[in-house]
User: Which sequence fits this backbone?
C-alpha cells in the first residue's frame, strides 16, 4: 500500500490514479488523519500531495512528523516537496520575496544527476517537459538532500535524499501535461518502495465490497438507475456487497433510446437478480412536456419530475437508509469550484444531484475515486456486457433535448428509429469506440422533397458525432462521404417522417455537444 497524504490539492485523486495504473494500491488520507492512517495501513511508501496553501502561510498544513521518522520512502509533490523541505530543516520562501515569481504551466527541466526516480527513464543532461504550478519555492534544501534536476524557475525542480529514499518534485508528475509523470510515479512505487505492481481492479472490487458492507451494515439502500454506465456499475457492485438490502429504481421517462429501457430491466432483473422497480412514467413526462419549447424549461421540468417520481417510489417501498449514486471523481471536482467564483450556467444539468438533501439519506458512492475509463474496467470486471460498459454517454433528460421545440410521443418514436439506424451503421463500420458520442437530432423544421413521383414535406434530421476525452471540449468526427450518404439514405428510406438528413459540423466550443 501507498499512503497519499492530501493537503487539499485539486489533483490528489490523479496521484491515486497514477499509483493504480502502476498496479499498486493506495489510500488517500487528509493530512489531519495521516498519522492514524499510517499506523493502520503500514504503507511501503508515502506521497505528499500539492496544496492551494503555501508553506510560508500562517496555519498552512504540515505532515505528521512521525512520517519522516518511520524509515519509509517519501515522494513530495509541489507543496509536498516544500513542506518536506521545511519540516526537515530547509527553507521555503514566497515567490514575491525571492523576486522571481512562480511558474505556472508547461516548463522544461534538465536532469543534472542520476536518481532512482529516473531509472530507465531519464538520463543526465536530458531536457523534459513537466507541468509546474507554484508560487513559493524551496530556497534551501534540507540536510541530506541534493539537486537532481533543475528548471529555469526552480533550481530545485527535483531533489533527492537517496539514503533515506526521500524525493521531492516541484512539478506535478500526476497530470498528463507531464508526459513521463506516470512513469516517474511508477518508478517511485515499484522501484523505490519495492511494491510488485500486480494490483488490479479485481482487488478494488473486493476492497469496495468490504467498505460498502461496513458502511451499510444491515441498512437499506436505494439506487436510481439511469441506464448509463456509472449508476449500473455502482448498483451491481453494491448488490454484490449487500444483496437484497439494495433496491434499484429505474424511472423510465420514455425518453430513452430504442430498446434501452427493456435492456436495463432484463439485465438487472434477469441477469443479476437485483430487486428493480421499473416505473413507467412516460405519460407523466410527456404530459408535462406538452407545450414546453424553451430548452431550460424542458430541462428543469424533467429534473424536477425525476426527483418527484423517485421520491414517490422510495416511499412506496418503505424508504431506505442510504441513497446510492454512481458519482465519479470528475463530478466531485466539478462541483467544487476551483476559483470559488460563480460560474455561468450554460445548461441546468439533470442528474440525481438534488436528491440527497431532499431525501435526507446518507450517501453510498463507491465510484467516487474513479475516472470514467476505470469505471468501464470495473464494469467489465463485474461482468457487465461490453455493449453496456462501452456505451456512449447519454444525457439525463434523454431524447427531449435532442428534439428542439415541443416533445411528443410521435417525435420521440421518429427520432428513436433514426438514431438506431445511425448507431447501427457506426457500429457496423467499426467506428463506435473511436467516437465519444454520436446521436441523431430531430429538427422542428420541415422541408420539401421528392420520393418516387411524390412530393414530400417532412422533418429534417441532423446527425452528430464528436470526439472528446471528458465532454468539456469536443471536435467533430470526420466521417467519409460514402459513410454519410449510406446513413442519410437509410434514414430517409426507413424512417417515415424524415426526408432530409444534415450533418452537424460544429465543435465545442462554440457549440455544445447536445443541441439544448
Ligand atoms: P453539453 O451539451 O453541455 O454536454 O456539451 C456535455 C456532456 O454532458 C452530457 N449532458 C448531460 N449529462 N445530465 C447528464 O447526465 C444532463 O442534463 C446532461 N446534459 C448534457 C452530454 O451528453 C455530453 O456528454
Assistant:
Amino acid at each position: 500500500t501507498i499512503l497519499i497524504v492530501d493537503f487539499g490539492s485539486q489533483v490528489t485523486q490523479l496521484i491515486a490514479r497514477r499509483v493504480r495504473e502502476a498496479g499498486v494500491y493506495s489510500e488517500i488520507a487528509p493530512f489531519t488523519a495521516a498519522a492514524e492512517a499510517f499506523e493502520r495501513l503500514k504503507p511501503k511508501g508515502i506521497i505528499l500531495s500539492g496544496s492551494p496553501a503555501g508553506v510560508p502561510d500562517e496555519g498552512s498544513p504540515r505532515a505528521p512528523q512521525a512520517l519522516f521518522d518511520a524509515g519509509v520512502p517519501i515522494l513530495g509533490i509541489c507543496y509536498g516537496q516544500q513542506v518536506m523541505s521545511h519540516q526537515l530543516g530547509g527553507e521555503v520562501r514566497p515567490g514575491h520575496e525571492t523576486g522571481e515569481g512562480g511558474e505556472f504551466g508547461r516548463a522544461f527541466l534538465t536532469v543534472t544527476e542520476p536518481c532512482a526516480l529516473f531509472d530507465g527513464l531519464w538520463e543526465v543532461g536530458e531536457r523534459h517537459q513537466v507541468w509546474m504550478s507554484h508560487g513559493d519555492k524551496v530556497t534551501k534544501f534540507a540536510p541530506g538532500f541534493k539537486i537532481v534536476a533543475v528548471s529555469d524557475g526552480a533550481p530545485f525542480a527535483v531533489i533527492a535524499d537517496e539514503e533515506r529514499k526521500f524525493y521531492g518534485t516541484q512539478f506535478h508528475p500526476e497530470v498528463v501535461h507531464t508526459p513521463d509523470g506516470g512513469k516517474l510515479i511508477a518508478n517511485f512505487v515499484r522501484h523505490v518502495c519495492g511494491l510488485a505492481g500486480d494490483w488490479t481492479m479485481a482487488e478494488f472490487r473486493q476492497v469496495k465490497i468490504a467498505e460498502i458492507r461496513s458502511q451499510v451494515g444491515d441498512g437499506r439502500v436505494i439506487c436510481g438507475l439511469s441506464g448509463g454506465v456509472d449508476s449500473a456499475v455502482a448498483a451491481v457492485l453494491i448488490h454484490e456487497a449487500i444483496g437484497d438490502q439494495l433496491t434499484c429504481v429505474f424511472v423510465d421517462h420514455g425518453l430513452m433510446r430504442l430498446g434501452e429501457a427493456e435492456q436495463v430491466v432484463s439485465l438487472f432483473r434477469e441477469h443479476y437478480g437485483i430487486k428493480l422497480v421499473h416505473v413507467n412514467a412516460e405519460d407523466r413526462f410527456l404530459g408535462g412536456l406538452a407545450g414546453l419549447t424553451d430548452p431550460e424549461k424542458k430541462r428543469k421540468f424533467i429534473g424536477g419530475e425525476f426527483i418527484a417520481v423517485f421520491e414517490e417510489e422510495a416511499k412506496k417501498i418503505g424508504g431506505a437508509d442510504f441513497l446510492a449514486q454512481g458519482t465519479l471523481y470528475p463530478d466531485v471536482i466539478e462541483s467544487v469550484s476551483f476559483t470559488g467564483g460563480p460560474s455561468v450556467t450554460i445548461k441546468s444539468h439533470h442528474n440525481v444531484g438534488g436528491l440527497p438533501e431532499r431525501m435526507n439519506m446518507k450517501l453510498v458512492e463507491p465510484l467516487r475515486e474513479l475516472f470514467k475509463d476505470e469505471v468501464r474496467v470495473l464494469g467489465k470486471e463485474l461482468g457487465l456486457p461490453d455493449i453496456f460498459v462501452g456505451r456512449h454517454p447519454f444525457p439525463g433528460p434523454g431524447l427531449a433535448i435532442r428534439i428542439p421545440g415541443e416533445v411528443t410521443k410521435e417525435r420521440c418514436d421518429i427520432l428513436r428509429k433514426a438514431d438506431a439506424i445511425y448507431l447501427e451503421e457506426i457500429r457496423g463500420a467499426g467506428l463506435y469506440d473511436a467516437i465519444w458520442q454520436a446521436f441523431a437530432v430531430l429538427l422542428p423544421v420541415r422541408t420539401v422533397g421528392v420520393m418516387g413521383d411524390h412530393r414530400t414535406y417532412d422533418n429534417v434530421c441532423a446527425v452528430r458525432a464528436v470526439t472528446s476525452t471528458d465532454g468539456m471540449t469536443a471536435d467533430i468526427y470526420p466521417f467519409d462521404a460514402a459513410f454519410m450518404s449510406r446513413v442519410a439514405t437509410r434514414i430517409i428510406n426507413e424512417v417515415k417522417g424524415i426526408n432530409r438528413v444534415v450533418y452537424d459540423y460544429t465543435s465545442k466550443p462554440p457549440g455544445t455537444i447536445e443541441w439544448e
